[in-house]
Each structure stands twice: as structure tokens, then as C-alpha cells.
Amino acid sequence: MSETSQSATGLRRRAKRLRRARIGVVITACAVSVLALLLLAAAWRDDQLINADKGVTSAEVLSAGRLRSAVIYVTPDGVTHNPKVGVLYPTKLTAGERINVEYRRSDPDLVRVAGRDVRVAIIPMLSVVAVAWLIALPLLWLLGSPPTRWLASFNAARSRWSRPRRES
What we know:
Blueprint: H1 3-52, E1 54-63, E2 70-74, E3 80-81, E4 98-104, E5 107-113, H2 119-142, H3 147-161
Antiparallel strand pairs: 1-2, 1-4, 2-3, 4-5
Helix pairs in contact: 1-2
């Protein structure tokens, strides 16, 4: 094999690896975005379930964290509940605090802090998506895919789809 053919083979391998790396970055950023959206959809579903069969009571915060807080409360039928997954939307709670909670009467382990709903999760979800893409876009650029190439590909695809149709 000549030196130029070895060099050409090496360049093809490098181009293939860079392409695979770019695809991996895009897939990862898309997966993070989809997972964040699914998390928001799950929170919305939980809110709908609670709203459809809502019970309200006071609870005591046993432990408080940024992402999970444990509460204990008694339902009107006299049963004490301590949900294993904690309370939904637990931000700014402190241990020992008495709070009002809303729960699903048919499933008392599904409980949220009263007055909070899925709107509390929108900004964190958007920030996760933004950070994912703020990391992905410079990586794509470093891997040899400048924004001018993205725009050219986008415009080419758009022109294919937006051609006027001939009337028959």
C-alpha cells in the first residue's frame, strides 16, 4: 500500500469516528430532552390523578431535601400514611414543619404539597434541556459540524418540503 492510500484510509476512519461522535452527541441531547419532557408529563398526570379524587389534610415533614421530602399524615379514616416516594414538589420544606397536603383518596401514597402543581416543574425541566443543548452544540462544533452546515442542511430540507405542488 502506498503512503497516500494509507493516509486516505486514515482520514476516512477519522471522519467516520467524528461522524459517530456527532451522532452520539445529538442522540444524547435528544434523549435528555425527551426524558425531561416525559418527567413533566408524568408530573402533569399525577396532578390530574390527585385533582380527580382529592383529599386535603395537614402533614408533618419528617425529613426535607431539595429533591425528596418525607411526610407523615393521617387521612380522615384514621389511617396514618408515610409515602415511600415522599411528597411531590418538596422545595423549601424544613423538617418538623406542619404543611397542608393534597392526596389522592384512592391512593393516599400519591401526595403533593397543597397549592403546588406541575407549573413548579416547568422551569427546572426547561433548564435541564437548555443545559443539555448548551453542552451539545459546542461539542458538535468542536467535532467539525459548524452552525453554517446545520443551517444549510435545515434550509435544504425545508426547501424540499415547501416546494409548491403542481395542480393536476
